[in-house]
Amino acid sequence: MSAEVQMSAEVQVDTHAHIWGAAMPFWSRAWKRPDYAYTVETYLDTLDANGVDFAVIAAASLFGTYNDYVIRALRQHRRLRGTVIVDPEIGMYDLEGMRRDGVVGVRLQLFHTDLPDFAADGYNRLFHRLRDMDMHVHVNVEAHRLPSVLDGLRPSGVKVVIDHFGWPDAEKGLDCPGFQAAVRACQDGMAWVKLSGGFRRPDQDIARMFAQAYVERVGTERLFWGSDAPFVGAEGTVTHRQTLDQLGYWLPDAAVRAAIHRSAHDFYFA
């Protein structure tokens, strides 16, 4: 399917999945080393089986800056976009080439790591280049550190996409500082939030609470949905179809869900 075809009113976009081939080099600090491949062909078959039209491949920290497989998949399948993990010293020409291939952003996988100095020359230059190329920073970080990460990104003016609801603390609920910071960043026009990875919460009513709160506070224009396929660390406990069904449970209004999918299409494919 071509990304240039006219979008139907029923378009569906999965904005968060990972793919990899056989015999790829794992990052030395990979938290998981799957003993199977999840190929682009397998993933596209899954999308077709579930009526999903477009998708965004999220860079997997398991492979560090080895983006080769994802970039080749983006070149071949124009219904896909993707993010990559890069060294902050990456040059403008490399980023421009990735952009032409379908890369739309750079992922910062910050879980359980020391936060970089975003004011340092390399990161400062990277964020400004991404801004200039209409690309974004794709952030995955714990909720309690999300406010400082957003503060560090704000001066560059780069767009930010926040993973997995922003990982808000269920015990703190809507008073969670990370959730509140994500809402403010969306309201300020800086950020978008992925309603993704909700299956990782044992209580779907918690995911539902946060999903509905985001809709109420920032509207559908700032929200996307993602499956997080192939569910690394939770293989065999959830299917792609079930993640779509979970979205339906969080947000029962079909018009709201359709608006979220359209927002994703406009952001990643327009």
Word description of this protein:
The chain is an alpha/beta fold. It has helices at 40-49, 68-76, 92-101, 121-132, 146-153, 177-187, 204-218, 240-250, 254-269, and strands at residues 13-17, 54-57, 80-84, 103-109, 136-140, 159-162, 191-196, 223-226. It starts with 12 loop residues before the first strand and ends with a helix.
Key terms:
270 residues; alpha/beta; eight-stranded parallel sheet; disordered N terminus
Q: Within the largest sheet, what's the order of strands?
A: 1-2-3-4-5-6-7-8
Query: Helical amount among residues, as a percent range?
Result: 25-40%
Give a quick account of the main beta sheet: strands, pairing sense, barrel closure. Answer: 8 strands, parallel
Distance between the termini: 15 Å
What's the shape? globular
Strand content: 5-15%
* Uncertain segments: 1-8
Overall strand count: 8
Describe what is shown at a glance:
The protein has 270 residues and is α/β, with parallel strands linked by helices. The chain contains nine helices and eight strands. The chain has an eight-stranded parallel beta sheet, with helices on both faces.
Topology:
Elements: E1 13-17, H1 40-49, E2 54-57, H2 68-76, E3 80-84, H3 92-101, E4 103-109, H4 121-132, E5 136-140, H5 146-153, E6 159-162, H6 177-187, E7 191-196, H7 204-218, E8 223-226, H8 240-250, H9 254-269
Parallel strand pairs: 1-2, 2-3, 3-4, 4-5, 5-6, 6-7, 7-8
